[in-house]
Amino acid sequence: MFLYIDPGTGSMLFTILISLFSLLFFFLRGFFARLGFRISAGKKARKTEMRIPLVIFSDNKRYWNVYEPICEELESRGIQAVYMTASEDDPALGKHFTHVGTEFIGTGNKALARMNMIRADVVLSTTPGLDVYQWRRSREAGRYVHIPHAASDLTLYRMFGIDYYDAVLLSGEYQGTQIRALEKLRKLPEKELVYAGIPYFDRMAERLEKSGNGEKNRDPGFGWTAEQKKAAGQMTGNEGSCESLTVLLAPSWGKNGLLSKYGEKLLGPLLETGYHIIIRPHPQSEISEKKMLDQLKEQFPESDRVSWNRDNDNFEVLRRSDIMISDFSGVLFDYALVFDKPVIYTNTEFDKSVYDCWFLDEELWTIRILPQIGRELAPSDFNSIGLLIRECLGDERLQAGREKARTETWMYRGEGAKRAVDYIEKLLIREDRSF
Question: Which pTM was predicted?
Fold first, then answer.
């Protein structure tokens, strides 16, 4: 008979083992350090052990777009840092910086074990859950700084997602209000809140401008002829015209995600529109929902009308599509605010019970702003999805809504990387370390 350990118990046992291992590691290191000090009459100070001024931790290669502009700003200022990644094929590993080193530190628990004993003045990461699950604060690390990977509510992290960070880089005042409310509720010390903007938004905007499509993508009917725009108000149902249109389906993952919730019920009618459909599942779906995805891929295989996209860099697929259908995924805001294109979002009866927002009475900014930048898609609309797409593309009111959203969640446009590194540089000086 095999011994079964449920995932929750397994996680707890692993955390206990990591804690015991860490305790033994630091005890032995301290013992030998003291012994060495006595032997050398104090000439060998503990400072001779390598300590990294700044460590950037990425748990997945998909977050390189968040870190790249910051790494380049660090490099331009000559600030020493090490980018540590849990992805062996992280694009960062192919970079040849002088001042910013890159290192693959293993996957999963091996990477976390390394981070749990890191010696650094400052740790910057987009990974939530510090000191909640397996990822623990290192006794040899100074300040932990969180940078979000999406322009939306930080309370959409799983419970206690950023409670134990020392500082958070923010892009909108509503985010700071939410953090302060949680701190007060949980009687936590106040974090340092730094309004820096969104470095990866700035980078995408630069790329879009250089691509020559910046102005085109501000036209809500981009890709349509004048006749097609005129026909948008006359057509109903899923007529197979306007075939040049490309619809991007970019859901989140989990039971509330669009593909998990609706799957073939939505994909079937979408294909009947005659448009080109790009399906870009959340990377976590490939791990946590592989069976569901495999079934959908078999039912809706690659063809001249269907593409399954897994590019690590999503810039090109966002640029070449005309409209996005999503749920509560943060990429929805990348699409609407940077590429200035309309979105359609599904009401999946979002279950807040596992997220930090469950503790707050205030309505999520995401929920409040969505109707102003896109149109809601209900199951009753599936059979007329073609009409909804055309109406959304021709709705000029959404343009004003997107600008309002930019104002509220994208502060200091074009200055994100500079402001983030300004803060990091001050932190390093505050820690009284040279770099």
Answer: 0.79
